[in-house]
């Protein structure tokens, strides 16, 4: 296991760990927007840039760089800090109303930006790619992707039309760091406003409440251990589980008498 130094703190990290994982193991705060445990590193937001002092001086994206024996890392090195501030200025220009970006920028000493503000006043998407990657790499649907280049780059389904490949799982909304993905269940449909997509919801056979996207029904084949509970909404599932626990409790009580 490699031994490295992070901001003067010597620590041993697991084999295969990234520099970012080592930094977090050291208890050092380093902001990220595009990193998600369980997804391959992407290095899009550039907020995790750090300076490598030795063995070879460099400025790296900590999330995508493997920790190696003898590395000396400075999270507040002059070059990395300067670049992170420029990135935060870009983010402030792109999402001028988002409080989290403003707080991250203020923490780094950035209170204003020299770059033109976005013409879309309510812009929340920072192009971190988390929604695209979770849909493609974890869910396997690839219902959304990047569209265009440069300042016109966006995320969305093909031609901004109904995403036919979408299964309505909501993973994109769950990982979005800025709440840019708007999703709600209305009138028996899951509406993903950001993707112009509607997915029908399957009703609970017990109470009739729409609760599960119909395209996700294929998952029943992969959860054999809970087949008896799969077809119920969360509320009815809790009731069924509580009833089963009560049966087990009663059986245990009588067995011990």
Gyration radius (Cα, Å) is 23 Å
> Which architecture of the largest domain does the CATH hierarchy give at level 2?
Roll
- SSE series: EEHEEEHHHEEHEEEEHH
* Average pLDDT taken over every residue: 91
* Highest-level CATH class of the largest domain: Alpha Beta
Q: Number of DSSP strands? A: 11
Inertia-based shape? globular
Q: Helical stretch count?
A: 7
**Integer tally of domains:** 2
CATH domain fold name of the largest domain: Ubiquitin-like (UB roll)
Main structural class: alpha+beta
Portion in helices: 25-40%
**Residues in β-strands, percent:** 15-25%
Query: Main sheet?
Result: 5 strands, mixed
Between the first and last Cα atoms, what is the distance in angstroms? 54 Å
Q: In what order do the strands lie side by side in the largest sheet?
A: 2-1-5-3-4
Low-pLDDT segments = none
What features would you describe in this structure?
This protein is an alpha+beta fold. It has 2 domains: 123 residues, Ubiquitin-like (UB roll) (Roll), CATH 3.10.20.740; 98 residues, no CATH class. The strands form 3 sheets. The chain has a 5-stranded mixed sheet with strand order 2-1-5-3-4, sandwiched between helices. The model has no long low-confidence stretch (mean pLDDT 91).
């Amino acid at each position: 296991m490699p031994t490295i130094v992070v901001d003067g703190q010597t620590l041993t990290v697991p084999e295969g760990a990234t520099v970012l994982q080592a930094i977090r193991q050291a208890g050092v705060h380093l902001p990220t927007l595009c990193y998600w445990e369980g997804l391959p590193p992407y290095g899009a937001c550039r907020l995790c840039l750090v300076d490598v002092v030795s063995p070879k001086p460099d400025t790296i994206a900590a999330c995508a760089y493997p920790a190696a024996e003898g590395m000396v890392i400075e999270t507040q090195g002059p070059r990395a800090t300067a670049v992170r501030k420029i990135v935060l200025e870009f983010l402030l220009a792109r999402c001028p109303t988002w409080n989290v970006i403003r707080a991250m920028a203020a923490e780094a000493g950035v209170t204003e930006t020299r770059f033109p503000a976005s013409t879309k006043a309510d812009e929340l998407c920072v192009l971190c790619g988390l929604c695209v990657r979770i849909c493609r790499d974890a869910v396997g649907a690839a219902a959304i992707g990047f569209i265009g280049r440069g300042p016109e780059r966006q995320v969305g389904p093909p031609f901004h039309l109904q995403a036919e490949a979408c299964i309505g799982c909501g993973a994109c909304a769950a990982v979005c760091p800025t709440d840019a993905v708007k999703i709600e269940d209305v009138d028996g449909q899951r509406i993903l406003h950001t993707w112009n997509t509607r997915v029908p919801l399957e009703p609970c056979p017990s109470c009739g409440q729409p609760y599960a996207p119909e395209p996700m029904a294929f998952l029943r084949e992969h959860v054999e251990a809970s087949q008896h509970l799969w077809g119920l909404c969360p509320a009815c599932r809790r009731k069924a589980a509580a009833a089963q626990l009560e049966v087990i409790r009663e059986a245990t009580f009588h067995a011990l008498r």
